[in-house]
Specification:
It is built from 17 helices and no strands. Helix content is about 80%, strand content about 0%. It has helices spanning about 10-30, 35-45, 45-75, 75-95, 100-115, 120-130, 135-165, 165-185, 200-205, 210-225, 230-240, 245-250, 250-265, 275-295, 295-320, 330-355, 360-390. The radius of gyration is 19 Å and the shape is globular. It has a single domain (about 10-390), classed as MFS general substrate transporter like domains (Growth Hormone, Chain: A). Helix 1 packs antiparallel against helix 8 and helix 2 crosses helix 3. It has about 400 residues and is mainly α. Its main location: membrane. It is a multi-pass membrane protein. Keywords: Cell membrane, Membrane, Transmembrane, Transmembrane helix. GO terms for molecular function: transmembrane transporter activity.
């Protein structure tokens, strides 16, 4: 992307639509978590086998980012999001009618690749239309909507699977995605300059030191903050709780993000970004200390709340940094940021799935604890150095 955008504060209506898109995208992404046990039981397969549908979703969600960035530079931000949401509807409806796990993996991969355009598209749209000094507030609202989507998913998807069918949950987000595609037609397209060559955009990001640092950090963050999240309802279910109750308790994550996001929004202009990273990262570390010691219901719920706080403080700060680390190639930079985040999440789902299937919950939490400490230290020092260099 060029720097030729006219930055004017985006309308409240446009922000609400973008937030609803983020909500729907994250609802769709996380709703499989409380349904893993139900789907595995109905299809006569292991949780590990079904969890591959989650892993491929995360992977395709991440890999598709750069492709959508290239398309949005040429077709426009809003048009690209609308096309992607229509295709997500197709993938979601296919997910609802699949006959077996193999088909489910394929359908979820398609759906993830298409819903991939929703949040990064919104991030770039806000980056194109809101000055950087005012950007963290709408970005925090966007993240809050995504967190609410995750929270509602863990509650309602589990309940739908328990009392109706997991297929109905997939059909629900598919139809909402189609409706969103229609509603987004009223958003104004940002004015963009001539699109740069694809390789020029990628090279512009990958030869940028701060950008490389942020991309590396968010890859590890995806593993640490999102990797185990998919399996928290399974951990609770293993302790004897129902699928619905397990989903309800892990909804504490979204509620936590919602509460802490308001704090982040209020402090974003007065609190140094590196301090936000340190605070959020510290909460994540404490979460995994607790779950290593015990993975009973109380420890998991407390850890879930701390992870929500960690996401609110740490990820929102890295996300804001990502919109400014290579402003001349914002669409590509943000898409690569999302690619790294969900690649890390996919790695976590693939690595932790067999552990969860074997009941090795302590091992999963211990790995994330060990990885989270250097992540927090590096991110804090890196962001502080970036600020002192006048960025």
């Amino acid at each position: 992307m060029s720097n030729g955008t006219n930055q004017t504060v985006v309308s409240a209506r446009s922000l609400r639509l973008l937030q609803f898109g983020a909500f729907t995208s994250q609802f769709d992404r996380l709703m499989i978590a409380p349904m893993l046990v139900v789907i595995a039981r109905e299809m006569g397969r292991s949780v590990e086998a079904v969890s591959q549908a989650a892993a491929i979703y995360f992977l395709c969600y991440g890999v598709a980012q750069v492709g959508w960035a290239v398309v949005s530079d040429r077709l426009g931000r809003v048009r690209t999001m609308r096309i992607a949401l229509l295709l997500a509807m197709v993938g979601g409806l296919a997910s609802a009618v699949v006959p077996g796990v193999g088909w489910l993996v394929a359908a979820r991969g398609l759906t993830g690749a298409c819903f991939a355009a929703a949040i990064p598209g919104a991030l770039v749209y806000i980056g194109d239309t809101v000055p950087v000094k005012l950007r963290q507030a709408p970005l925090t609202d966007l993240m809050t909507s995504a967190a609410v989507g995750m929270a509602v998913a863990t509650v309602t998807a589990g309940a739908i699977a328990d009392f109706a069918s997991w297929r109905a949950a997939f059909a629900l987000t598919a139809l909402v995605g189609g409706a969103l595609s229609f509603l987004l037609r009223g958003l104004a397209e940002p004015e963009l300059g001539p699109p740069p060559p694809v390789w020029s955009s990628v090279k512009g990001v990958l030869t940028n030191g701060p950008a490389l640092l942020v991309l590396g950090l968010v890859l590890v963050e995806g593993l640490v903050l999102l990797g185990p999240l998919t399996f928290l309802p399974v951990v609770l279910h293993a302790s004897g709780l129902s699928v619905t109750l397990s989903g309800l308790l892990t909804a504490a994550y979204g509620a936590s993000v919602l509460v802490f996001a308001r704090v982040v929004k209020g402090r974003s202009r007065t609190m140094a970004p590196w301090r936000m990273i340190l605070l959020g990262g510290g909460m994540a570390v404490l979460a995994y200390v607790g779950t290593v010691v015990s993975h009973g219901a109380v420890a998991v719920v407390v850890g879930t709340v701390l992870l929500g706080g960690g996401w609110a403080f740490m990820h929102s700060t890295l996300q804001t940094w990502a919109t400014d680390m290579a402003p001349g190639y914002r669409a590509t930079a943000v898409s690569l940021f999302a690619t790294m985040l969900f690649t890390g999440s996919a790695i976590g789902a693939a690595v932790f799935g067999p552990m969860v299937d074997a009941g090795s919950f302590t091992t999963m939490f211990a790995i994330t604890l060990v990885v989270s400490v250097p992540l927090v230290v590096t991110a804090t020092l890196g962001r502080r150095r970036y600020a002192t260099r006048g960025a």
